[in-house]
Amino acid sequence: MTSTALVDRRFLGELERPGQVFEHLTPNWFAAVMGTGIVANAAVSLPLQSGLLTAYATMIWIMAAVLLIAISTGFVLHWARHPHAARHYAGDPVMSQFYGAVPMAVLTVGAGAVHLGAPLLGSTVAVGLGAVLWALGTVLGVATSVWVPFTMMTRTRQHEVRALPAWLMPVVPPMVSASTGAALVSHVPEGQARLAMLSSCYALFGLSLILGMMTMTMIYSRLVHGGVPVAQSAPTIWITLGMIGQSITAANLLGAQAGLVFAGSMASIALGLKIFGIIYGLAMGGFGAAMFALATAITVRTVRQGMPFALTWWSFTFPVGTCVTGMSALGIALGSAPIRGLADALYVVLVIAWGIVATRTAHAAYIGRVFRPA
């Protein structure tokens, strides 16, 4: 066995010093929280539930919450101890896109608190925690959806910047707010407050959908004309599914809650919103199937050519998870057993993908490989 192999196996053996853990703790680490949390939230969304599945989901949610606390602490230390490196990553045209992962990580853990936290924290505390994290994640998400594009528009360029799938990261968070906010509608007081909550979620849906579809058009054009990203970035093609799955989830979950706001003479509005969710879900589901096939084909091709492990592998998790929640919500709204079955099948794919990526990340973190300069 070579000395290099021995170094690789030591704790943080690939780093020159332990402090490098915080020096290069980039925002894409929050994708690990997203990818872990969605495993729990997707489990809750499945039509068929059991005590064993709930226990599993709760364990995964706790893991995601611990990751959020740990990575957030490390990220604060990253900015405090290494401000020059932090500003460099924040100004990087690619890495800056992953600041969108921060609010989505917060929102994912917050949604888990609402769905799974009651047995551990009590209903009041669980919903309160979920509401606080939803508000924080929403503010951060709206900020990134404006700040990141603004910096791209005003940055001095020495060469042309081409659209990448990662460009969706800062514009998807408001859609996550829309879908996770649906679970809070019933906890908001009836009347104007509940109307405001539902209306805000639909506004967030529109904000993210329009910006996201414009961005996806640029990404698709870039892929057709410029080819797929390099091997290390190839997994990010799956991010496109995040917008598709999350929007189907939001449209149907919000439609299901509309009856709590629009009743009596306004019940037709609730029915209309539910119908909108179903039609939108079916139409966007067709687009999603095409993008799923395309992403799978590109991934298989890249694996055959050699695809090194990187944190971009977390792109295999959260987007697939949103497809699970989307198909679950659509299947319930439509009363379709095949669509609900598709959600079950996709959940199996999600769990397998998460297991592989989480294991590879834990190993790479142990030896320090993922903490080296990006």
TrEMBL record:
> Could you tell me where this protein is found in the cell?
Cell membrane
Keywords, ordered alphabetically:
Cell membrane, Membrane, Transmembrane, Transmembrane helix, Transport
Q: Which domain of life is it from?
A: Bacteria
What is the first-listed, main subcellular location in coarse terms?
membrane
Stretches that traverse the bilayer: 29-48, 60-80, 100-118, 125-147, 167-188, 195-217, 237-263, 275-300, 312-334, 346-367
> What is the recorded membrane topology of this protein?
Multi-pass membrane protein
Query: Which InterPro entries would you find in this protein's record?
Result: SLAC1/Mae1/Ssu1/TehA (IPR004695), Sulfite_efflux_TDT (IPR051629), Voltage-dep_anion_channel_sf (IPR038665)
Q: Which family does it belong to?
A: Belongs to the tellurite-resistance/dicarboxylate transporter (TDT) family.
Protein's recorded name: TDT family transporter
